[in-house]
Design a protein that fits this description.
The chain has 394 residues and is α+β, with helices and mostly antiparallel strands. Helix content is 32%, strand content 18%. The N and C termini lie far apart (49 Å).
Length: 394
């Protein structure tokens, strides 16, 4: 297989990938310095006095990211997973562009936030940090093993108190935050404080549920599976029927989520970390993982449906951020334009913080793009919407 961009700091991109980028109006030169892109870590708030200790443990300097609070650069070859600060929950890895997408939500204490594609959990952890001691964050993901990793992460960083996690199809999820606070009648089964140790009855129920899921496509499953909830997430003391109750459209407008993040599944072509993995996986696996036209078409439908359902669950006046780590217009601006044409109470809004960011405007006004060449980060597309009570002016 012929390759381009040999030597230096660039990845050896195969011709098929270069063609894919060209067809999507993406210049392959954005990857020219990909090997020198730093790793980014977020410092858990309250650990600022431990920076010297952290630097000594990871054997690298933490260089502050001046446009993103609590974020630091480290050299790209540094691995933190085996270090003491990581194991103690003082730092975690998250690309600066992904941190910017979370910051665009403008999370405030007391907000009820939905992370509709939550795994593997770094963005959800950041949301929980920003919430502080009020509000709630709901994480949803279709992949059990990935959401299990999210659960491990929020527990490790002691951020689970106001969090609840559901294994569910994000295109159909319909549980709103206020559904948890319903006053229950006597004799109804209610949620007790969460514990990793399940009763025999609960283990039997979960086994039956998993057996059912294994015999069906996930889209055929009615009820999301709650795999974790914190003491102050609104679950403890609520009846199981009230938690699983699907809200109607009027309830959602009044009692839906204040903020929704839809970091949608995509081809990951903008993720430097992901593309670098093909050097280990083998570039021959690239066509079916990234380049396949049928997969791209299916992703467009999935992305549009995730955005549509996330917006449906947003209360009037709330904010939604849609993002992907693809550089292609097909998975970004095209999705945004189709969505806006179908939802007249949706309005794109400026991301005010972006004036300080090393990014550029997307093809659609008010959208934002990060890429390795412009931003010294992985690629990310970010669009922010608000929900109007009446249709937006054309």
């Amino acid at each position: 297989m012929d390759e381009e961009f040999h030597g230096g700091d660039s990845l050896p991109l195969p011709d098929a990938f270069v063609d894919f980028l060209t067809q999507n109006s993406v210049s392959p030169t954005v990857y020219a310095a990909s090997r020198s892109i730093p790793r980014y870590v977020r410092l858990k708030p309250g650990c600022e006095t431990s920076i010297d200790e952290i630097e000594a443990e990871i054997k690298a300097n933490l260089k502050e990211v001046n446009w993103l609070p609590d974020f630091y650069e480290i050299p790209p070859d540094i691995r933190i997973s085996s270090t003491k600060p990581y194991k103690e929950g003082k730092i975690y890895g998250i690309d600066a562009a992904s941190g910017a997408a979370v910051l665009a939500l403008n999370v405030s204490p007391g907000d009820h936030v939905l992370d509709l594609c939550a795994a593997p959990g770094a963005k959800l952890c950041m949301i929980a940090d920003l919430l502080g001691c009020s509000g709630s964050v709901t994480g949803v993901d279709v992949a059990r093993h990935r959401l299990a990793a999210t659960k491990t992460m929020i527990q490790k960083y002691a951020l689970g108190d106001r969090c609840r996690l559901f294994i569910a199809d994000g295109t159909k999820f319909s549980i709103i935050p206020s559904a948890c606070g319903t006053v229950v009648k006597e004799n109804l089964e209610v949620y007790k404080e969460w514990t990793p140790q399940k009763t025999w009855k609960e283990r039997k129920r979960l086994a039956k549920m998993r057996e059912k899921k294994n015999s069906e496509t996930f889209s055929g499953i009615e009820d999301p599976e709650l795999i974790f909830y914190g003491r102050n997430s609104g679950i403890v003391g609520a009846s199981k029927s009230s938690v699983q109750r699907k809200a109607n459209e009027l309830e959602i407008l009044q009692l839906g989520y204040d903020k929704v993040l839809v970091d949608a599944e995509c081809t990951h072509d903008g993720s430097i970390k992901h593309i670098q993995k093909f050097e280990q996986w083998g570039w021959t696996t690239l066509p079916h993982r990234v380049l396949d036209a049928k997969r791209t078409d299916e992703l467009f439908t999935l992305q549009l449906n995730l955005l549509t359902n996330g917006f449906r669950l947003l209360k009037a006046g709330g904010s939604l951020v849609y993002s992907t780590c693809s550089l292609t217009a097909a998975q970004n601006e095209d999705v945004v334009e189709r969505f806006l044409s179908q939802h007249h109470t949706a309005m794109l809004v400026e991301i005010e913080e972006s004036v300080k960011w090393p990014c550029r405007e997307g093809r659609v006004a008010k959208t934002t793009r990060f890429d390795p060449a412009t931003s010294n980060t992985s690629g990310l597309f970010v669009a922010k919407f608000t929900k109007l009570t009446t249709a937006a002016e054309p």
